């Protein structure tokens, strides 16, 4: 019963960290990645469709992304969608493919990325603390329903706090690593 609460709590905390790391992919670091286009969608025959579903997206070097649509009639739609998404580079349509040339990141841009990263990290910490609260509430309900003793409840809440501390420390470590990666010139 208590082990189920621990396992569920740990699984939710793990997913909070995974969510934070997925969010990090949208941040720009020194080297451009194709994930900066993950949120760009085009109207493909009436359905909003992700770019990687209508063409290939390749990072050819540290500052260039090339989008090759599978249907050439989509070039203008893709170009306008990228322009509206404001990804940090203007699309260049050569009639065959779209190239995005990203300028090298300035110190200010790197610091701005670090700020965004820290907000994402704080959101993950809040999610982990909410998972702790939910688990503690379940334990307190079990105690109230006389399914566990007061001592077992206290012990369970201590275990939940240990799990929480472990995941908060993991978030802090990931944030430090990512900050060093972003600020490295």
| Gross CATH architecture of the largest domain | Orthogonal Bundle
| Percent in strands | 15-25%
Total number of helices: 4
Biggest sheet strand order reads: 3-4-6-5
Principal-axis shape equals elongated
The CATH topology assignment of the largest domain is: Topoisomerase I, Chain A, domain 4
Give the full name of the CATH homologous superfamily of the largest domain: Ribosome-recycling factor
- Extract low-pLDDT stretches: none
Instruction: State the name of the first-level CATH class of the largest domain.
Output: Mainly Alpha
What is the strand tally? 6
Q: Calculate Rg over CA atoms.
A: 22 Å
Helix content: 55-70%
3D structure, described in words:
This protein is an alpha+beta fold and 185 residues long. Helices cover 57% and strands 15% of the residues. The protein is built from 4 helices and 6 strands, in the order αββββαββαα. The strands form 2 sheets. It has a 4-stranded antiparallel β-sheet, covered by helices on one side. A hairpin with a 2-residue loop joins strand 3 and strand 4 (64-69). The longest helix has 38 residues, at 107-144. It is elongated.
Salient structural properties:
185 residues; alpha+beta; Gyrase A, domain 2; 2 domains; four-stranded antiparallel beta sheet; two-stranded antiparallel ribbon; 6 strands; 15% strand; elongated
Please give a quick description of this structure.
This protein has 185 residues and is of the alpha+beta class.
